[in-house]
């Protein structure tokens, strides 16, 4: 069974009201009103294939528009429910989907959406998948060229292949001899990358050692979609941008024991021309200063002896004792009921299922507590808590009569 709902969460359930005002549902389509706009989600494409497309109706101008949609949208299921939260995002519950996969958010005026809106000059909405509880935070690793970031990340991925996934950045620099396109980087042309940055496809981007580097939203989502914890190897400017974004991460800065040792490692790696080595060493001094900026990095590790630094990194990430302990109980066999009604009180949402078709002892009603959401587009929305409450079903029956 899943986690039991704490007593205080269930207090005042009699004050829940059935959802009617914000969102209306018609088959596979929902319409949610926010101010002067109605967000219509779902429906079918021309070929009658179900889709999770979004269109917006402006009640003042009476004009329909198709917004720019960022992030990966949910795969259509047998319909969905929509619940407005905070006036800036719509909670989407995919009917007949596993609880762990069926909770999504369409952000319509969160800070991320507003910022993209300003850059793109068009109406923007962004999808973000809900992850129950705290979920594991992405890890940002920065440090000067040659300090050993790649070496440490490779060790981590090799020891914990199913836990970590690497965010494959885009870069305009030429591939090194052993680098594989799509694995180490997405090697790309400057004009193409600049256009994609303009189109809002990147979480962050920066000019480093004379080349353009950037983390695409898709790169981070590919890792989280695979159920893994994302590792980003990015420079200090990138770390600063991510810090300012909604992607809540752990920031780790790797320092060399000395500049002489850094130079030795860079030269011995033998991947850069002399001119490039000089440029990277010059930049290293500024990066080391910036690495110490207050509030930017959560942890600073010195990579002197590799094994010692790797051990410290694992300890910092809590890998020794609590590898995946941050997850709530799995509840992975539970489904969002195909037929359900929704009631809402503040940020607590009651998903009230009908009779269980399987007749099995699985719960059909759930309480979703969205009062402490964290993160969001361009990553996961962490924090929705979901409790199975079938044991209380009798006392909740009256809700249907309201
Ligand atoms: N901002 C940003 N920096 C990146 C990204 N990918 C790599 N970098 C940084 O770019 C710098 C140069 O990387 P690279 O050319 O692979 O050289 P290396 O650090 O010597 O291995 C490093 O500081 C990386 O952390 C990215 O997507 N965004
Ligand atoms: N602790 C260490 N001691 C000695 N050499 C190291 C250490 N860590 C990494 N190296 C070597 O230094 C070079 C640069 O490491 P790399 O992981 O490519 O750095 P980065 O990704 O930070 O540019 C590589 O040849 C690597 O084998």
Automatic annotation (TrEMBL):
GO terms for molecular function: ATP binding; GMP kinase activity. GO terms for cellular component: cytosol. It comes from Elaeis guineensis var. tenera (Oil palm). It comes from the Eukaryota. HAMAP family: Guanylate_kinase. Transmembrane segments: none annotated. The lineage of its organism: Eukaryota, Viridiplantae, Streptophyta, Embryophyta, Tracheophyta. Keywords: ATP-binding, Kinase, Nucleotide-binding, Transferase. The gene is LOC105035252. Belongs to the guanylate kinase family. PANTHER family: GUANYLATE KINASE, GUANYLATE KINASE-RELATED. This is Guanylate kinase 1.
């Amino acid at each position: 069974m899943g986690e039991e709902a704490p007593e205080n969460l269930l207090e005042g359930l009699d004050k829940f009201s059935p959802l009617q005002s914000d969102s209306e549902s018609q088959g596979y389509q929902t319409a949610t009103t926010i101010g002067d706009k109605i967000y219509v989600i779902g429906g079918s494409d021309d070929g009658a294939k179900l889709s999770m497309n979004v269109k917006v109706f402006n009640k003042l101008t009476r004009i329909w528009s198709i917004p720019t949609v960022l992030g990966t949208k949910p795969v259509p299921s047998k319909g969905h429910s929509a619940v407005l939260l905070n006036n800036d995002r719509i909670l989407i519950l995919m009917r007949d989907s596993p609880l762990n996969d069926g909770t999504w958010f369409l952000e319509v005026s969160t800070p991320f959406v507003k910022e993209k809106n300003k850059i793109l000059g068009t109406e923007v909405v962004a999808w973000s998948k809900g992850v129950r509880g705290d979920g594991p935070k992405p890890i940002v690793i920065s440090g000067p060229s040659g300090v050993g970031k790649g070496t440490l990340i490779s060790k981590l991925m090799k020891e914990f292949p199913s836990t970590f996934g690497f965010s494959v950045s885009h870069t305009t620099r030429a591939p090194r001899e052993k680098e594989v396109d799509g694995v180490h980087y997405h090697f790309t042309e400057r004009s193409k990358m600049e256009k994609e940055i303009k189109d809002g496809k990147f979480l962050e981007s920066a000019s480093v050692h004379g080349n353009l580097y950037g983390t695409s939203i898709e790169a981070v989502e590919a890792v989280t979609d695979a159920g893994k914890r994302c590792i980003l190897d990015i420079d200090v400017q990138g770390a600063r941008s991510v810090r300012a974004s909604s992607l809540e991460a752990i920031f780790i800065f790797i320092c060399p024991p000395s500049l002489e040792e850094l130079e030795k490692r860079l030269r011995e790696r033998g991947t850069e021309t002399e001119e490039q080595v000089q440029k990277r060493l010059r930049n290293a001094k500024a990066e080391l200063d910036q690495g110490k900026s207050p509030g930017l990095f959560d942890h600073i590790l010195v990579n002197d002896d590799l094994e010692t630094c790797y051990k410290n990194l694992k300890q910092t990430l809590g890998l020794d004792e609590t590898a995946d302990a941050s997850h709530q109980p799995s509840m992975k066999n539970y489904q969002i009921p195909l037929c359900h009604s929704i009631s809402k009180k503040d940020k607590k949402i009651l998903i009230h299922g009908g009779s269980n078709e399987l007749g099995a002892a699985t719960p059909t009603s759930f309480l979703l507590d969205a009062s402490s959401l964290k993160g969001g587009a361009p990553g996961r929305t962490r924090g929705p808590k979901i409790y199975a409450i079938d044991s209380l079903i009798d006392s909740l029956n009256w809700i249907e009569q309201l």
